[in-house]
Amino acid sequence: MKNILKIFVLTAVVSFTSCEGELEIPIQSAIASKDVPLNAEFIETQVVSAYGVLDGHIPGILMWGAAASNWIYGEVASDNAYKGSDAGDQPDITAFERYEGFPASAYMEGKWRAVFEGVSRANLGIDAVHRGLEAGTLTESQANSFLGELRFLRGHYHFEAKKMWNNVPYIDETVSESVSNVGVDVWLGIEEDFSFAVENLSDVSVRNGGATSWSAKAYLAKTHMYQNDYPAAKTMLNDVINNGPYGLNQVFQHNFNYEYNNSMESVFAVQFSVNDGSNTSLNGNWGEVLNFPQGGLPGGCCGFFQPSQNLVNAYKTDQNGLPLIGSFNENDVTNDEGLSGDDSFTPYQGNLDPRLDWTVGRRGIPFMDWGIFPGAPWVRDPSNGGPYVQKKFTYYKSQESAGAGDAFSTSINNINVNIIRFAEVLLWRAEIASIEGDLEMAKTLVNQVRERAANPVNFVRNDDGTPAANYVVGLYENFPNQEFALEAVYFEHRLELALEGHRFFELVRTDRAAEILNEYLAEEGTKRSYLSGASFGPHAEYFPIPQNIINLSGGVLQQNSGY
Amino acid sequence: MIKLKLFLLAILLTFSQLSQAQGEVTGTVIDDQGIPLPGANVSVVGTNRGVITDFDGNYSITVAGDEALLFSFLGFNEAVVNVGGQSIINITLQPSAAALDEIVLTGYSRQSTRDITGSVSTVSSEALAATSPVSLEESLQGQASGVVVNTEGGPGGAAAIRIRGYGTINGNDPLFIIDGTPTAAGLNSINPNDIESIQILKDASSAAIYGNRAANGVVIITTKSGSRNKKAVISGNSFVGIDFIPQSSFPQMASPQQLADALWRAEINTTGNTPNHPQFGNGPNPVIPDYLWPQGTSAPVDESVYDYLTNRIVRSNPEGTDWFYEFFNPAIVQNYNISATGGGENFDHFLSFNALDQEGVAYETGFTRFTLRANSTFSLTPSLRIGQNLTVSYSDRVAVVGNQTASMASISSLYRIHPLIPVKDVGGNFAGANVGGLGAGANGVAYQDRNKDNHILNNRSLGNIYGELDVLKGLVFKTSLGFDLNSVHSTNFQPQALEGATPNFSNNLQEFTSLERVYTWFNTLNYELKLNDHSFNGLFGTEFNKRNLRQFGANRGGYLFNEPLNIRYLDLGTNNINNFGSGLQTAYWSMFGKVDYKYLDRYLISGTLRYDSSSLFTKENRSGTFPSMSIGWRASNEEFLQESTVFTDLMFKAGYGQIGNDGSISPSASSDIYAPNRDYYAYPTGPNSLAVGNGLVSRGNPNLGWEITTTVNAGFTARLFDLFNFNFEYYDATTEDMLLSVPADPTVFGNVNTITRNYGKMNNKGFDVSADYNHTTSGGFFYTIGANISQYKNEVVSLDPNNPNSFINGATFTTHIPNRTQGSYPLASFYGKKYLGIGEDGRMQFEDINGDGVVNNSDQTFIGNPHPDFTYGINFRADYRNFDMFLLIQGSHGNEIYNFMKYNTDFNVVPGARSLNYVTETGLPMVTTDAGIILNESAQSSYFLEDGSYARLKNIQLGYTLPEKVIEQIGVGLSSVRVYLQGRNLITITNYSGLDPEINLATYSGQSSNLTIGVDSGSFPTASSVMFGLDVSF
Question: How far is B163 from chain A (nearest CA, A)?
């Protein structure tokens, strides 16, 4: 009894004394910020994460709405493509296609979040570098190398925001609360970031497809182009073209083939990988997940992003193999709309640019090595989205095991998305030459791009080796005047870079959007009923700033006019 | 003068008593069941001398022969016995009739319901047993005022109990205390047959003693115990029943012909042309094909060329497949329970075993559970006792695929899959939308069939061991060590599935396991003192709780075969090799005290103080002290009412209190957190390889502190004519500094922009009323009828004090976010456009909310309220001779449901099934294929709102107890046999068009579960049941 009493007394004493010391529990299964080492090894992983959101891929958003390729905003919202799929599927995209984008759209919020997550990650890295320098855990050269990449990325993300929404704030590592987007010179910040990258990055990237001084120069040139600052752009472009490591791939399709990711033509590209140990291949090209033909290929889904008749028509060539710049849309390239897979169909017999058949999947033409494209059976709803499918983000059947992802749909792949490729660099330089009246140089550069297309190695071929269509591509003899030169440059840009996410932004940049898009809507409205009645108002040059983001800024951010 | 005489007389009497011979009286105090009553008061009438019975009900007191002894014990009628020279006085105390459940546990101690000045509801084992529950939560529905039970549905599904509305946004579950041990791991593994009683502490003054996590109410569960000096009694009960979903509740869907016609009409309405459809052709009228694959074929098809991989021939089903009928099937439920109870002089024991096998009404689902319980107490010495409670439970659950918020879920797919698609193709494999032209709705039957071998296994051990010591007279020390060990293992194999719109050519196995260890150690000192008209009870205690959770899982794909089951192990997978794991640790420490004082059984006052420290906060903000108090006035004991035959009992009470809540926030909420991650923070180093980055995965706030709920409670209880009990309470609770994950501007903070803050203020006010009446007629007919009704009004007073327009969204359903939480509105109010009706143009009309002259998707406002005007329960019980009957009706009135399923069935968003309403031209807007119109009309609006009121016959049971004569004839030691027939959820009165109006939350755990209320996105319906049961004892 006494012993028991003793135990009780002891227990009482122990238990009534505080256990508060037991409450200091380290955070489990995560690294608290106070434990983060500010050394090169750790900051390198932050740089990786800053690159990591180039794919626009963050939790909680519609991934296709923030796709690195901008297929919705750059292409569907232009004259190059229709939304595709069924009429009511992803209706927000139709709103953008009709230039009726609205601030409450989840697409806008997703894209904004993805882009500014990139800015935020770059800033976190930059801040860590500064603190590492202060703490002496980094050397000056390590710091500058990291800062070069981080500021390059911050420039890129702001560039994405700027071209989408125009009135955006510039966020650097010192900003800690909402700042205004009105009257802000974001271009200045972007230029400073790219200039810093030019100064501090080496010629060769420290990582797969990472930023270099050359890609920074090209991006800086693009920044100047978007401000119509041709002299500044020219200096950079000359340097990149004359001294840089870039060139055109002989095979056009290699630009859209994962086996040739980071080829010499790739100036800066978003890298993708599949079957790499991530869950559901989350580093694959999820932004394009909807854009496989429906029904045909294994796991084919979901029949979005269908090229427009207008785009297909643009690939017609005359007897000299030159594009029909003014009249291309007067007659349609024959299509199989309204026909079932069993009805007979003869593909278009006129002259065509072979780039058509690396850009667009159409009835009767081999679809890579998947077989002859059968028309309706591989198209989700031809009566809604027309008879074509996109082809640039599609892999070969023979690449299936190495290239295809393992998730939701086997359409997820590792084909890089080019942000800048060398053909575009050449065409920018040609544009400047045209504007400066150097028509010879403009012609030479355009022909340089056309010459590759004309190479028979770039013809799509039937199993028996014969060309699948009547491919005729010629070079320009001369550019008779400045106006023609500029038209030819612009037209070549479209043919060469169609469906790569640039078209809409190029139209806005060159101030041609209203004219071209209204003409397009008038004609296309007769072909696609859902486009009838739509028009392009001046406010549509920029997308609406997402309402939720404005709300979360406490009203500091202001909506673009017209929305 | 007379008073003086009386005084002198009293002194004389006292002296004369002293002159009497004194002697020792001993005895045992037992109850009417023969169970000893430890802790009963034995006092000498007219003196302050007294003792308390020991653990075996024994006492010993020195008393004079002409004195009288007063025996009293909470919940029992007092008894007075004249000693008259006896040396042994054994007495049996009769339970007092004042209330059915007299003794309640109100926090580390016992108290009479009579004397409770806070708000406590009690559910007896009898009321529980009458529902033959398979889960404890469901049995609470409708039983107590102010208590609403939200069940996920399906066998073994989760449940969420909400007490008096929504006290806070995050961490709104009540605290469950099972035999003194707090648990947060749910009640699924508890055998309802083991429950002795359940007390629900609803207001701050009664719950405050439990402190942290008690702000949303406390549910105290006491399990059965054995009896001293009693021979063993073995009883068994079992029931077998059939669960089913009444076909009358299935939504009305359009036939294939109606769908095809509507498709044609839509295209003609929009473009004037007839469509070209892969299945229905391109003629002037749609043609329903005989075969869906080959696509749209009506000519004869050679079915012998069927091949699963390359040519899955699918016949069409022109009559239309009733997917709800195919999916929901009657299911058998069996429950077997056996228990033994008994005890010796110094110990008692309770033992039970339960086996439950519940097939699910959803295709290929089910739940099997075994539980074992052992409760015992031992007296080592008259003043020292030890005891234990233990339950060990094992369960095996096959769940329905996907929940309401999942994009791929079985039940929501039933609303989407086109009825022309049959369940199976001509080869006997599942058919689906891969035939083209019929949308992307999944075959829910196929989902479930593939899931039938995916088991969720759960092992749980829950219990405590305790010791009690009578230190001094009236002073008891108790120490208790409680533990809750919970392990879960699940396997999820996804075989190849080719029938869907997006065929899945690969297969994948995920295994997941988690181990949770929680222990709670509390120590209390309880002091009880009765002095003439004063009665005093004091409690002081400490409590320490630590929780440790670890989980991990792994994935592999590339299995060579999908069958047989014995290949479904990780080792046999060849690609997509992945693993993951995480864990957390939390702890809290508390100190608390309580004082109850009663004078003359008229005036009661009670005060509590609790000091809480939580590991979830940083050291500086870790601790808080929270006071509460309550008072009561028993008017019926005042002289002016004492003789009243109307008021047998009448007490007014009022309470005020504060309780701190750590909100179950993430343990990392106070710090920025970095983590390496292969998915979102990595960047490719090549086409099939990665560099892994470290990302800021969540932002922290080191200034987080306690969320505080302040409650005022006032009301009265009355017993009239000794027949009628009435209880009314009004409450007003305000929670401030709510712990909430709040989004900041993503422009600055990126996508990882939510930060936990002490944010906002919310108020709940309302009343609870309960009443019951019981009566026994002279003919031996006993009946009781009870009713309860509860009302709460919730208002989020404010969120961000600096920005009145700040709000928090609920879950996203495709493009809809129906719930919005914003200041001045009820939690999770419905938000969207205001639907006005069909206009002359045949189009849906909406209100121009922002007054800009344009009606578009920016015209959104608050459109509805998911909270009910009131909820109620009515129960009835009757006994006549050998027959007995129970009846329970439960309902909710005035709540709205956002029927999101209409997004798919009432609009031409994607091809697939449609409601009957859609295809009948009188119903919905003129059908169209115009994407702009579809976008406008299908956007979130009040069109989707429906009245969610319902009244439901939750339970009806008819029982018959065999006459003793018959039992004697049977022999074999039988002592009683009862058989019964029971029906559950047999009648539901509602106007709601969906499967089941009993809808509340979309998810049952996680920080945001309260932000999405009343949305039906394919929720699991509550099953109806008919069952037969048998109770025997030996």
Answer: 29
Q: Give the residue ranges of DSSP H helices in B821-940.
A: 902-905, 916-919, 931-937
pLDDT value, residue A405 = 62
Closest alpha carbon to B461 in B486, B489, B488: B486
Distance from CA of A362 to the nearest CA of B (A): 18
Q: How far apart are CA A411 and CA A394, in angstroms?
A: 8
Whether pLDDT at A138 is above 60: yes
Please indicate if any CB of chain A lies within 8 Å of the CB of B318: no
**CB contact at 8 A, B654 and B714:** yes
Percent of chain B with pLDDT over 70: 95
Q: Give me the helices (H) in A137-185, please.
A: 140-165
Is-contact B833 B859, C-beta < 8 A? yes
Which string of DSSP letters, residue by residue, matches B278-313?
Answer: TTTBSSSS----SEEESTTB-S---GGG-BTTTB--
Element containing residue B26 per DSSP (H, E): strand B22-31
Q: Model pTM? A: 0.84
Instruction: At B982, list the tokens.
Output: 């029971």
| Tokens read off for B799 | 């969120």
Q: Which one-letter DSSP state was computed for residue A363? A: T
Question: At how many degrees (to 10) do helices A422-436 and A482-497 cross?
Answer: 170
Nearest CA in chain A to B690: A276
Q: Which two tokens stand for residue B712?
A: 């005022």
Nearest CA in chain A to B742: A552
Could you give the count of Cα atoms lying within 13 Å of B970 in the half-sphere of its Cβ? 15
Q: Which of B832, B858, B761, B812 is nearest to B1011 (CA)?
A: B812
Confidence of residue A15 (pLDDT cuts 50, 70, 90): low
CB contact under 8 A, A106 and B752: no
Q: What is the mean pLDDT of residues A137-148?
A: 96
Q: For residue A3, is pLDDT > 60?
A: no
Judge contact between A454 and A475, C-beta under 8 A: yes
Confidence (pLDDT) at B742: 85
Residues of chain B with pLDDT under 70: 1-22, 33-34, 74-75, 95-107, 407, 921-923, 1005-1007
- Rounded CA-CA distance B775/B877 in Å is 11
Residue A86 and residue B749: Cβ atoms within 8 Å?
no
Amino acid at B294: P
**Mean pLDDT on A96-114:** 94
Contact A178 B747 (CB under 8 A): yes
- Asked if A430 contacts A226 with a C-beta cutoff of 8 angstroms, the reply is no
Tell me how far apart the alpha carbons of residues A497 and A265 are, in angstroms, rounded to a whole number.
13
Nearest Cα neighbor of B934 from A346, A478, A257, A529 is A529
Residue B515, chain A, CB below 8 Å: the answer is no
Partners of B615 on chain A (C-beta within 8 Å) are 22-25
Q: For residue A480, give both structure tokens.
A: 């008779």
Average pLDDT of chain A is: 92
The more confident residue out of A22 and A118 is A118
What are the tokens at B210?
A: 């439990």
Alpha helical stretches, state H, B360-427: 410-414
Residue B17 per-residue DSSP state? H
Residue B699 confidence (pLDDT): 93
Sign of the torsion formed by the C-alpha atoms of B844, B848, B853 and B856: negative
Nearest to B265 by CA among B256, B255, B275: B275
Asked if residue A92 has pLDDT above 80, the reply is yes
CA-closest candidate to residue B746, choices A295, A478, A5, A110? A110
Mapped to the 3 state alphabet, what secondary structure does A106-140 carry? HHHHHHHHHHHHHHHHHHHHHHHHHHHHHHCCCCH
CA distance B1014 to B1022: 15
Between CA A302 and CA A161 the distance in angstroms is 28
A486-532 pLDDT, tens per residue? 999 999 999 999 999 999 999 999 999 999 999 999 999 999 988 98
